[in-house]
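Below is how a single chain appears once it has passed through the pipeline. First comes the sequence as given, then the structure the pipeline wrote out for it. We keep one example in the README because the format questions we get most often are answered faster by looking than by reading.
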Amino acid sequence: MIAVVSLITTFLVSLLVPYALAPRLQRMGVIDIPNWRSAHTSTTIRGVGLAPLFAMMAGYFIILADPQQVIEVGTLVTIAVVSAAAGVIGWVEDSRGLSVAVRASFQIALGLAATAAIVIIEGGPWPLIPLFAVYIAGYINVANFMDGINGISSFHGLVVGASYAAFGLLLGFEWMAAAGAILGVAFIAFLPWNLSGKMFLGDVGSYLLGGGVSVIGVASVFAGAPVVLVLSPVVIYLADSGVTLVTRVIRGERWQDAHRSHVYQRLTDMGLSHICVTLTVTAMTCLTSLAGALIIVEPGLWAVTVALLAFLSIVYLLFPRIVSAARSGRLRESAV
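Resulting structure:
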């Protein structure tokens, strides 16, 4: 019953708080002004990712305040605090601005503190802390890089959150199921605003998403979940961001500069609508999550799972070429 109340509260807060936030943010001047990298053409309020941030904290509070709850408190508190801290860093970036060096320092520090806390709670080798700290900091940025079109972050939060919730139930990790459900509900409730393009999550929302996803993943791995399983819902985001970064470095471009090189950006530049591209990315994420679940059904299928994840990632990365080839084929047919 408490879990249901938590999720309903999370949903309502994320859905309704933007009504109160929007006028305040507009008066503060927290707005997004379109530039050449933007997928939008009009000035829009940003920073409304405060709504899912407040929603997630309300959801966590209700679960943790239950005197009869048996969920592992330490891990759930760590996930809540890290998610909130990531969102706060994003809010400072939205409202005041931070240099790349300062922003990266905060993210790495958060990753180190989060991983150290998880190692203390769940147990695990301390030498791995820097590796997982980089993953947390890195995925915060990945979620930020991928938050460029209407609805993409809300759907990503829903699919990854739902996947982690399902994985948690199957593995017997109640805290993972609770954290995944809260994450998914908070972001899907924001979808009407996110999908319409009337309000943007801003860095507070994308950092919250990246921090929440990554810290749940890290905690799950240290608790004994297979790495392949944990990575399956995020592999499309990692492939898009990773290949884009490597390609730009190879070309001699300044990797930290704004650009429109991501697969999802190239697809929108080809004329596909925001919702079409968003649903494409979401569908591929659903497929990789299902592929990851194979390892729960049969642990011996880890090689098959890895192969499926690699195949689906490659297909996604080739989408711009596939769309271009399909269009060229139609043009040739019409010319004949």
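Residues 2-28 form the longest helix (27 residues).

See the next section for the split statistics.
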